[in-house]
Amino acid sequence: MSEDRPYVERNTGEQERLRALVARLNDDELRRQVNDHWTVAGVLGHIAFWDARVLALADKLEAGVAFSPSDAEPEDVDWINDATRPLIHAIAPRQAAELAVHLAEETDRRVASLAPNRMWPDDPDSPLNPLRATHRAEHLHDIEAALG
Question: Quick check: pTM over 0.90?
């Protein structure tokens, strides 16, 4: 791990945890409820959605397109999660799980390749947070708790 990229090792650890979880889950487990609103596959799709957001921001950064105020993540993201839930749950559970792994891998590669001084927190005006591990860990913990 490079000292100027402490997120790389943390992202890798949670990506490996995600990959191992998806590999061992059967289809019934993917359909199990985590809470009143989300299934296991749905939570994995949620993780994929937020990783895809980072990829979209990385595309802008690499293309030299300035970030706009609308690129900032709102303080309250509940409406985004609520709006995406039916779409995420419409994806076949195994496909949502595999997509989560694929996007985690791609996202981690991309943020590791970007200059840290162009991302948050080194650039406080950047909406691109390269640390994906915290979000993944929170939801992987929820999944593991629901599965017992």
Answer: yes
